[in-house]
Amino acid sequence: MNIQLPVPQDLRETIARVGLRALDRERSRELARTEVRDLVSAGIGRLRLPRSAGGFGLDWVASTEILLELAAQDSNIPQVLRGHFAVQEDLLWRADAESDAAPDARDLVQRWLARLAAGELVGNAWTEPGKGGFHQSGTVVSESTDGHVVNGVKYYTTGAIFADWLDVTARDAAGRELAVLVRRDQSGVEIDDDWDGFGQRTTGSGTARLTDAVVEEAELRGLNDRFPYQTALYQHFLLIVLAGVSEAAARDAAALLHERSRTFSHANTRTPRTDPQLLQAVGEIDAVAALARAQVLATAASLDAASAARSSTEGAQIEAANAVELATGRAQVALHRPVLEALTRVFDVLGASGVSQSRSLDRHWRNARTVTSHNPWVYKARIAGDHRVNGTAPVRLWSVGEPDAAHTPSAEGPTGAPEKVTPGA
């Protein structure tokens, strides 16, 4: 696929090179440290930054085109980058919202935009083990002689092990939920590469331990003050991964069938690549890859609409955020079955040779199964149905953890009674 977008040629070439050792990294579970840094140097982290701030000024549709190409080369890396893009999106939202704000607030946003333009990378550190994170973070920000410090344990810290900064959810002494940016290269931050999932094995989604990690007071921001479609943006990146895996599987199936020479005595043709049944199987895989791509680009368009709403009324912002939350959820529901089925069809194309460990074709299914297990689709289907039938708006900011006596899961979600909108919208 040739991306015709206003990005430097070296970024395109760097994306192409990412795939050269992707299979080796998968086999040995080697983190793509060099590849991630090469991509950041080439500008992957600046896609959404305005040109005036040192970026490429791309919208979400154009950015997604590039990220889809990257996902087809190595599905782990777009997931590594999603926390970075979320913080970047929040900065862009604040840049508009705080245009009339105090000089200190404007200066902070501009300082962060400059950091991202210079190639600094942000990783995610939201989810916590056990009860932590269910309605209230177990990670705590407190005052100290150094100003403010953060203490807590995070898991599923995707991208953090590659990053310069961690985007951390925490609470203060008053119980206020915060999102704080913590510098990684300090003694109070320890990250373990202990993610043991059978798919997306090199995302670095392990444990982060924060022990009196210093954070500047200016970096303490209310979690509910973040841009209103952040969980939808996180889901969008998982959809990018799913579509990239589908494209990679279609590519592998076609290439391996084209070079295959052995066939069965009862096959349709002497040459496997002309066998109509095998061609049909590849065609089905290709169709699902195209479907996944179309769905992801549609959710990207919803993200662009939500982003554009930052200059509108609060009501318009909420409406656009609800729309993109529903769009990403519907896409997850719509894609999970056909994608997983298509990834098993790869083995129908190749016979027993397709299960060779040297090819690791099972990685496509494992990677797809892993991202479809995040933010489970069954809840997204229920939310879509509740919206269609009852006009219930989706929960835009939710959490996961072990409930206790004070917090029982309910259809109301973590922020109280759901909003109501027109059924069938």
Automatic annotation (TrEMBL):
UniProt keyword annotations, A-Z: Flavoprotein, Oxidoreductase
Pfam family, one: Acyl-CoA_dh_M
Domain of life: Bacteria
Gene Ontology MF: a single term: flavin adenine dinucleotide binding
Domain annotation Acyl-CoA dehydrogenase C-terminal: ranges: 243-375
Region annotated Disordered, chain positions: 403-425
Acyl-CoA oxidase/dehydrogenase middle domain segment(s): 125-212
Flavoprotein is among the record's keywords: yes
InterPro entries according to UniProt: Acyl-CoA_dehydrogenase, Acyl-CoA_DH_C, Acyl-CoA_Oxase/DH_mid-dom, Acyl-CoA_Oxase/DH_mid-dom_sf, AcylCo_DH-like_C, AcylCoA_DH/ox_N_sf, AcylCoA_DH/oxidase_NM_dom_sf
GO CC field: cytoplasm
A biological process term (GO) from this entry: fatty acid beta-oxidation using acyl-CoA dehydrogenase
Protein name: Alkylation response protein AidB-like acyl-CoA dehydrogenase
